[in-house]
Design brief:
Layout: H1 5-9, H2 27-60, H3 64-80, H4 82-100, H5 104-139, H6 147-157, H7 161-176, H8 181-201, H9 213-234, H10 254-286, H11 290-326, H12 330-366, H13 370-375, H14 377-402, H15 406-431, H16 436-460
Helix pairs in contact: 2-8, 2-11, 2-12, 3-5, 3-6, 3-10, 3-11, 4-5, 4-7, 4-10, 4-11, 5-6, 5-7, 5-10, 6-9, 7-8, 7-9, 8-9, 10-15, 11-12, 11-14, 12-14, 14-16, 15-16
């Protein structure tokens, strides 16, 4: 069959004849279903990324040392939260599968167990992180001008880890049940409050003292608290699939903890590999100096916008695939994964053009330092090439997780993100002297490998046979 764009986007050409298990809806219906489910997630993730970018711009007013100080805390924070993220991957997959089977009672029981686990884990995370902050920041390679600031910021934001953990767990379950709008409802108001309080606290407005980085951290905690309250309120809807009450039995059940651990353990291994690899890469870049690291953080802020789009589409795909497999329709699961990838591909091309033509303009919104802007020129070009690869593999990885194929994604993250990318980053940055450009070339190399193997795994269809 000759390749054409119409054939590529047509759902009629996405399956082999022997893969079809029943009536396949029209392409328009399948795309509409995917877009309607993905739109809230994409909007939420994009808005959060844009607000995070505005957050960085506000902090940028304190100088590039402040940007670097906060940027150096991101990966250690994600490392500590890795177990929460992995728990939520399991929650989304299990709730989606139970909802596909119309076993709503078990879906609600799984959510209760996950909330209890999230609360217990957040206490441990907060304690460990707070007392290890100086050692962690030193390990990350914080410069003398950023170390005190980074320790202060890190310790304060960990005070809100419980609010963040509960909010993330509830929204993960709601997405599995098909309510992808929940993240939009929780995160957008939370981030608006964060930005408003940043405006007040960072430089001291409306009679408030100028608190600098401390004010930014306080604003983050208040935003997380609001997000948590909205997420809890979403479970009070009498017409919702997921609805909980304090009057329910909130006891741990071994069988539910066991299945959460089974699915979540692979996701945890993936998160640890993913975050540890990023942490090492961040450390290597931090060793290049404050200006290079500030430039890196600004460009990472840009690529996080495209990451958020892929993640939003991947969330929708995860939910659609989980429910399709629960309904014993692996053919629809395959189509939804491919439709999601194609939607992501179109958006990625648009962003690539923007980064190629307006890269320095975007960087200039964060910093007017000519040294930073000039250093970002080759980075934004690499960013434009990386974006289509990144969005594609994020969407397909989300699809695989929705099917419970977390073992594969964990292995791939271990090989590429934990082993290959840090080694290539160090060699290019320090050994061969490419500096910051080397770190971004390493990212490009990593995305090529991950995109190839993720696509190959998805195309094989073996993920559809996994029972959870």
């Amino acid at each position: 069959m000759q390749f054409t764009l119409s054939n590529y986007f047509s759902c009629n050409h996405m399956l082999k004849e022997e893969q079809v298990l029943g009536d396949i809806p029209a392409s328009k219906e399948l795309y509409d279903t995917t877009i309607s489910l993905a739109t809230p997630s994409v909007m939420e993730r994009m808005l959060v990324s844009l607000m995070s970018s505005m957050d960085t711009m506000m902090i940028g007013g304190l100088g590039h040392s402040a940007i670097a100080a906060i940027g150096i805390t991101y990966q250690p924070t994600f490392i500590l939260l890795a177990i929460i993220f992995s728990l939520n991957t399991a929650v989304t997959a299990l709730v989606a599968r139970r909802c596909g089977e119309k076993d709503y009672e078990t879906a609600n029981i799984i959510l209760k167990q996950a909330i209890l686990l999230a609360i217990c884990l957040s206490i441990v995370i907060g304690f460990v992180g707070r007392y290890s902050a100086p050692a962690i920041m030193n390990f990350m390679g914080a410069e003398p001008d950023t170390l005190p600031l980074s320790v202060t910021y890190f310790r304060i934001i960990l005070l809100g880890v419980g609010f963040n953990a509960v909010s993330l767990t509830i929204t993960a379950a709601q997405r599995g049940a098909g309510n992808t709008k929940i993240s939009l409802y929780t995160n957008v108001p939370a981030n608006l409050i964060n930005l408003t309080l940043n405006f007040i606290f960072i430089e001291g407005r409306f009679g408030a003292p100028a608190l600098g980085i401390t004010g930014a951290a306080m604003a983050t905690i208040m935003g997380q608290f609001v997000s948590c309250m909205i997420a809890i309120y979403s479970l009070r809807n009498p017409n919702g699939i997921l609805k909980l009450s304090l009057k329910d039995k909130w006891t741990m059940k071994k069988e539910n903890i066991s299945i959460l651990a089974k699915v979540g353990s692979n996701a945890f291994a993936e998160q640890i590999c993913f975050r540890a690899g990023f942490l090492l890469c961040t450390k290597f870049v931090a060793e290049l100096g404050t200006v290079a690291f500030a430039t890196h953080q600004i460009c990472m802020s840009l690529i996080n916008i495209t990451f958020s789009i892929g993640e939003g589409i991947g969330i929708a795909s995860s939910s659609l695939i989980g429910r399709s497999l629960g309904a014993l329709r692996s053919d629809l699961a395959m189509i939804y994964g491919k439709v999601s990838q194609r939607i992501g591909g179109v958006i990625a091309c648009i962003f690539s053009i923007v980064f190629l033509t307006q890269g320095q303009t975007l960087v200039g919104l964060y910093s007017t330092d000519i040294e930073v802007i000039m250093l970002s020129v080759p980075i934004t070009m690499i960013l434009a090439i990386v974006t289509p690869l990144q969005i594609s593999q994020i969407v397909l990885s989300g699809s695989l997780r929705g099917a419970g194929d977390t073992k594969f994604t964990a292995k791939l993250s271990f090989i590429t993100v934990f082993l290959i990318r840090p080694i290539v980053t160090w060699v290019l940055c320090h050994m061969l002297g490419f500096g910051l450009v080397g770190a971004w070339l390493a990212m490009f190399f990593d995305q090529i490998i991950r995109s190839f193997f993720t696509y190959t795994r998805f195309a094989s269809g073996n993920w559809a046979k996994i029972a959870i």
